[in-house]
Amino acid sequence: MNAVTEPNARDLFAALPAIDVEAQRRLHERLVAAAEAEGVLDIAYRTIDTPVGVLLLAATQQGLVRVAFDSEQHDKVLESLAAKVSPRILRAPARLDQAAREIEEYFAGTRQMFDVAMDLRLATGFRLGVLAHLSEIAYGHTESYAEVATATGRPKAVRAVGSACANNPLPVVVPCHRVVRSDGSFGGYVGGADAKRALLTLEAAAA
Amino acid sequence: MKKPFEQIVVDHGPTVLRVCRAVLGPVDAEDAWSETFLAALKAYPELDPEANVEAWLVTIGHRKAIDVKRAEARRAVPVEKVHLDEMPESSATRDQHDGWDGDLWDAMKRLPPKQRQTVAYHHLAGFPHKEVAEIVGGTESAARRAAADGIATLRRTYLSTSADNPETSR
Region B80-92: what's the mean pLDDT? Predict the structure, then answer.
């Protein structure tokens, strides 16, 4: 191959579009359908727009496994899921239809409890116990970190409760935003202080 | 660290589709692409994190393309009654597939398979002849020769009719 032939060789495939958007969309859809049919789509994900920003939703075949705020950087969250759960991950909105609908209803003030199936494999041990308790805090109510620690049987583990909340894999759906400081101030939140205030304000208004 | 497979589809899907179209033509390309990425998704967790993903995908695609052709050959035997002008490569069928230049495929399909593959893998996907040889089998120099022969034929059958010399027209 010499220099004279190379321009021709490159020109050869000029008729083939470098990126055929319509074909890629069609093929992606077909891949998702085939992967679902054969049970090899380990994680499906999509994003939704909400009053607290764009949320990433990811689900295994067992259920919703991750909800992530924009501030957590969705690319990094997906990479972490690839490492911790499986790299067989595709953007596949259909599996998240129910979760997305319930979250939209929640932000519209018409839903107080989530029915969507959850996969809590990203939380273990004490943290898993904390998350189980969080789901028992009623809509529109709050508990202090100390109260949650007591309720989960380790009254001195206040900081561990804080860290369980900070690492909640399913914020919004598992209501770690309902845990506040003993003095009534909001405390930290994985989605930022503004998001926590927005969620608690929403619940106070709709409750 | 392994990327989510979605990123593999976004990063390499378009190149693999171009290769499938160049090697198989518009009708079979999408079937081959789909089978390639489904097989890749299944095998992805076991892939060496250091592997060249695009070469891996084209290697899978190469095997899938052989499967597609074999299945086609098996299907073709009992349907001898079908008229030739009803075969899938009629222009009517081709036009439904995004309308990319049919002249290219008309020229490509006249090449022996190995020339078509080596031309696509080297000149379209950009793999060195050594890697092309690993995909299609045989030696590096055989792969180099097949690609050169293919290009020489295409220069007569396709490039001479499709456009002026790009260097002089610019």
Answer: 43
**Which of A11, A35, A45 lies at the smallest CB-CB distance from B159?**
A11
Element (H, E) at A90: strand A89-91
Residue ranges per structural domain of chain A:
21-108, 125-206
Looking at the complex, report in whole angstroms how far the Cα of residue A33 sits from the nearest Cα belonging to chain B.
10
From the list B63, B55, B64, B65, the residue with the least C-alpha distance to B15 is B55
Q: Give per-residue pLDDT as tens, A58-100.
A: 999 999 999 999 999 999 999 999 999 999 999 999 999 999 9
Asked whether residue B161 carries a pLDDT value surpassing 70, the answer given is no
Q: Give the domain A125-206 fold.
A: Arc Repressor Mutant, subunit A (1.10.10)
Residue A196 has a CB neighbour count (10 Å cut-off) of 22
Domains in chain B: ranges and CATH: 1-98 (1.10.1740), 101-170 (1.10.10.10)
Contacts of B98 in chain A (CB under 8 A): 17, 20, 22-23
Long-range contacts of A106-109 (CB under 8 A, 24+ apart): A106/A172, A107/A50, A107/A51, A107/A202, A109/A202, A109/A205, A109/A206
Do the Cβ atoms of A87 and A60 come closer than 8 Å?
A: no
- The CATH code belonging to domain A21-108 is 3.30.160
For A192, other C-beta atoms within 10 Å of its C-beta total 15
More confident residue, A200 or B81: A200
What number is the ipTM of this complex?
Answer: 0.91
B64-74 residue pLDDT tens:
887 777 777 77
The whole-number pLDDT of residue A125 equals 93
Residue-by-residue DSSP string for A182-193: TTS-----TT-H
Catalytic residue status for A176:
yes
